[in-house]
Amino acid sequence: MPKLSSFEATLWYATAAPAPETAHLTGTIRADVCIVGGGYTGLTTALQLARSGVKVVLLEAKEIGFGGSGRNAGHCTPTFTHYSLPELRKMLGEPWAERLIQRQTRANDRVSEMISQYKIECEWQQNGYVMGAHSPSAMKGIEEKTRDYNAVGARTRVLDKRGVEAITGSPRFHGGWFHAEAGHLNALGYARGLARAVISEGGAIHTQSPVTKVEREGQGWSVNTPQGSVIADKVIFGTGAYTVGGWPRLDTTFKIQRVFVAATEPLPKDLRSSVLPQNTTIHDGRGDIFVYKYNAEGRVVASMFPMGRRGKDIAYTKQVMTDRLRWLHPQIRQEIHWDFFWFGDLDMQYRTIPRLYDLAPGVVALTGLSGRGVPTGSMLGGILSEWALGVPGRDLAIKLEPLTAAPFYMSFGPQLTLRYYRVRDWLTAKRDRAALPPHA
């Protein structure tokens, strides 16, 4: 039997609703806008434009959701990864920070609306998200996060130890942060559903159509594939971490950070009544993260970053995940079998927010989602469609900038940061006399 690719090895590939029928591009066709990349960013942009009456063609090198949109863990939490909201305001300045904060923190409104309107089969559950406090001193940061996010309209609250345990079933947290608007879904099912929605609105999608070159064609652009081309007034690249060719140096704008995701066998119903009893997404609050939730079958879907032996030795990696899960939930006494295990790539930026590049008149690219794929990719379609519809750059929610290569230190910076977080969490636990998980 041939070895499955990482994409075909995912839980989502095994369980997602079928993709709409598509074919590779042949011959020359015309469009108002050509979008490159069949992930969340490209698909939501295409959907918004098609709904606005724009003739749009989307080209995907492989198949819908082949990149990060089909490999992520399925968490949908409308927050920012690394920076607090005050830090974002200081870093981006106004009006850019406030515009982006508003889009990101309301991203799940857009996700929920599209799933409902187009009846997308993707296991969507909007039961909230918990970030646990792994030590008493972590509660100060949680209180600040609650204040900052609630000030911009999010529905979040501080949980005490008893409140966290009631929602998560874990006795290990000293408190936590609850975001009521967060959700989770079948990542590939969502991408495929978006593709079906694009087609229903009159947009065209061609898979197995890698873009080899983009060149001037009169007042517009010719987007070339091995067997065809699209003549378009405007071109949008939304290929993210899976950028291969298409535009010179676009793949230098980010550095790759790998992540792995695993899914257990379905847990017994009686165990699920005490482990994640409210079907939320859980972040264990550590810098060296462990994030997990259920899929529709009752499988625990968990993700971590590779570090040292973890991620290289798969048997050892599964044991690390087993030990962490059972430590968080001592009620799990049975042996845990991880039926699915796969890797994905993140297009990392040092600011961990997307960057919008002005490549040429009528051509833009967006990279650097930095691991916030589901909500971020979903809200970016609104911004990119506004650009395509003629909204001036000064009025967009992300600032247009010249193409810039990611700094060299991003090749090793994320790994060093993870190691720093691991040491910091260890020292904090020792100082606070808090329990440490296995392999911490």
From TrEMBL:
InterPro entries: FAD-dep_OxRdtase (IPR006076), FAD/NAD-bd_sf (IPR036188). The keyword S-adenosyl-L-methionine does not apply. GO terms for cellular component: cytoplasm. This is FAD-dependent oxidoreductase. Keywords: Oxidoreductase. Residues 32-387 form the FAD dependent oxidoreductase domain. GO terms for molecular function: oxidoreductase activity. The keyword Oxidoreductase applies. It comes from the Bacteria.
